[in-house]
Amino acid sequence: MANTVDNMQRCGVAWFKMDESGGNLVDSKGNFVGTNNGSTVIQGVSGNARRFNGTTNRVQINGLTLTGAVSIRVKIRKARLDTTWAYFMGTLTAYATQRGMTACVDWRTGGVYFGFGGVGLPIVYVQSTQNIADNQWHDILFTWDGKIGTDNVKLYVDDMSTPNAVASAAISNDFIHTYSYVTLGGLTGNGGTVCDIDELEIYNDVISAFPDVFLIKHEGLFKTYSNGAWISLGTNATASDFHKHGIVNSLVIPQSGWQSINGPYEIHSWTDSPDKVNVMVTETYDTFKPIDFLDGDVDVITWSDVPSDRPLNLRVEGEKYMNYRYKVEMEGHGELKPWSSWGKAAVSDHAVIKSQYVTSDNPYTIRVTVEQDNGTTVINSGTVTLINTAPSVIVSMLGMRAQATIDDSDGDTVSLKVLLNGKQIHPAAQVDGEFTGLAHPPITWTRSFRSNEINIGTNNTLTVVVKDKLGRESHGTVNFVGEYSGLMFADELGGYYSTDLEEVLQYLDAGIMIAGQISDTYPIRLINKTGTNIKDIRLWREQSSFPVGAKVELSKSNKLFQTDKELIFPETLGHGEEVTFFARVVTVLGSAPGAGIEEIVVVADPD
Q1: Which long-range contacts (CB under 8 A, 24 or more apart) does 246-255 make?
Q2: Does the structure show a pLDDT above 90 at 157?
Q3: Cα angle at 382 between 380 and 383, to 5 degrees?
Q4: Is the pLDDT of residue 462 over 80?
Q5: For the residues of 72-90, what is the DSSP string, one character each?
Q6: pLDDT-derived band at 318, boundaries 50, 70, 90
Q7: Do domains 4-203 and 392-481 have the same CATH topology?
Q8: N or C: which end of the chain has fewer CB within 10 A?
Q9: How far apart are CA 485 and CA 401, in angstroms?
């Protein structure tokens, strides 16, 4: 099979390279976001990786369900054995009450374990024999075709050509998983382990990580190229020979290596791709000629998206001791470089593609024509594709305050639109689906929602759609349960006295009192539900309709009460934090009979 890029194009679901400098993880395919909770950035196998402390550190990927055929590839490093099962990935908290997947390290043997199933179902699991708790990076690949079968569940450790362990599935992976998320660093709520994780790949089919390779057959012998020479492998070549000695890239063989072959030869290619019927493809070639080398060796190299003109690197070599010239053309735009002067030496040159020629990330055809002075003409075409990475968008909720962080690694300008429960709320579109104007990233969009905009006590969905200047889109989605926002008064049990729109939910009722009595003391919780930090909180009584001789007194303690002064809390409160004050009703002898209502007002400053 091909490399990760080819596997991802065929059946990839998510690819977290983990090369971010911090914060959340971004899926390279633009489908998901891994919300970070404490994991730290370290040096990984290639680029960065994440370290988990075994207790509180987690990364949660919401919206991801591992049903049907599945392949999971991940690189992990673990320094030592734990005293219990060391979970490093999962979609549940316990098989006894839920259904889903877990991945962990056996505390006795250090073997890697993957399991699917749960309450009411047998567990489909496979466990490796190799101890990976040795403080070294290990490449792990789990595959299952999602069906009931024999030896159809496989686990590879480091060696991608042969599974370390196989198992049979007694159930199919079409059961309903309890949760639609994947957690890294442990299970949600328990079962974490100290470990390092890098390069998480998830697929919806069975993959192989072993690359396509080839050997040549010359004079009846299979041969490979190593250390500057052809090495004979015998008259027959097995799959094991291809695994051990197969050539991955023909560029490792220099021109002199090809020229040393006398007479015809065959190229035998080996692949395990499910998209190909034959696993071995044979091609026969005549003795090497320099003109053949020219015909197959005009390299066109893609470029990155930059705002200025884009250089196109190419290499042209002519037949030895023969004059030649060349020109470069771009389909639809004519010559990029006119005919060169005649010469014999090898040439390294470049052509410039004007930025106005490139309007999207579609492939463009480049044609190089080489003419030799004996009249031979060789034309070779290649395609260049604008490498346009999708913009990134990370959406989070703190209370009822939403925040979207938008960026684009190519530096493209971007536009956005925001939908709440399927209805567009930003921009306020005249036409459904309209985006904002283009702007330079990074961009931070925030908004706080009131109770009349969301579903209180039930699920809500916020989606931010981002589009770059070439039309490539990314989506960020967060699901949340609606609740009231703002500075909220609550009783001891957490019941609110009013909504964030000042609608009364309940009264603090002191009951019937006799003149001269003082009521019980009532604690009132003031909870910060603004989604941000606040400070310098001030509250006072206002709009009293009590009868003459009766009044409400407030205090920061349940003993010392004030009559007219406002209460001041100078400390800073984060979202979800609270302070408590106390209220009572005081009457004097001779108080007028009757009933009344008194309001309490609160204000605060942002921190």
Answers
A1: 246/213, 246/214, 246/215, 246/270, 247/213, 247/214, 247/215, 248/211, 248/212, 248/213, 250/214, 252/225, 253/225, 255/293
A2: yes
A3: 160
A4: yes
A5: EEEEEE--S--SS-EEEEE
A6: very low
A7: no
A8: C
A9: 8
Nearest of 449, 394, 438, 447 to residue 416 by alpha carbon:
438
Position 117, amino acid: G
According to the model, what pLDDT value does residue 394 have? 92
pLDDT in tens, 257-272: 877 887 777 777 766 6
Q: What's the pLDDT band for 84 if we cut at 50, 70, 90?
A: very high
- Going by C-beta distance under 8 Å and a sequence separation of 6 or more, which residues neighbour residue 244? none
Give the residue from 490, 463, 485, 488 showing the smallest Cα distance to 476: 463
In this structure, what token pair is assigned to residue 388?
A: 């346009």
pLDDT at 543: 63
CATH class of 292-385: mainly beta
End-to-end CA distance of the chain: 56
Residue with structure tokens 């877990």?
A: 102
Whether pLDDT at 315 is above 60 = no
Using the predicted structure, report yes or no on whether residue 275 has a pLDDT greater than 60. Answer: no
Given the candidates 3.40.50.300, 3.40.50.1100, 2.30.42.10, 2.60.120.200, the CATH classification of the domain at 4-203 is: 2.60.120.200
Q: Which fold has domain 486-606?
A: Immunoglobulin-like (2.60.40)
Q: Say what percent of the chain tops pLDDT 70.
A: 86
The rounded distance, in Å, linking the Cα atoms of 334 and 590 is 103
Question: In the CATH scheme, what is the code of domain 392-481?
Answer: 2.60.40.3880
d(CA 180, CA 92): 9
The neighbouring-strand residues paired with 602 are: 539
**Helix, strand, or coil (residue 61):** strand
pLDDT at 47 over 60: yes
Instruction: Read off φ and ψ for residue 551, nearest 5 degrees.
Output: -155, 165
Specify whether the CB–CB gap between 72 and 156 falls below 8 A.
no
Domain limits, the chain:
4-203, 213-288, 292-385, 392-481, 486-606
How far is the C-alpha of 505 from the C-alpha of 497, rounded, in Å? 5
Q: Are the C-beta atoms of 423 and 507 separated by less than 8 Å? A: no
Give the β-pairing of 121-127 and 137-144: unpaired
**Looking at the DSSP assignment, which residues form a beta bridge with residue 504?**
498
Residue 251 corresponds to which tokens in the numbers above? Answer: 């560029």
Has residue 390 got a pLDDT over 90?
A: no
User: Does the pLDDT value for residue 209 go beyond 80?
Assistant: no
Whether 229 shows a pLDDT value over 80: the answer reads: yes
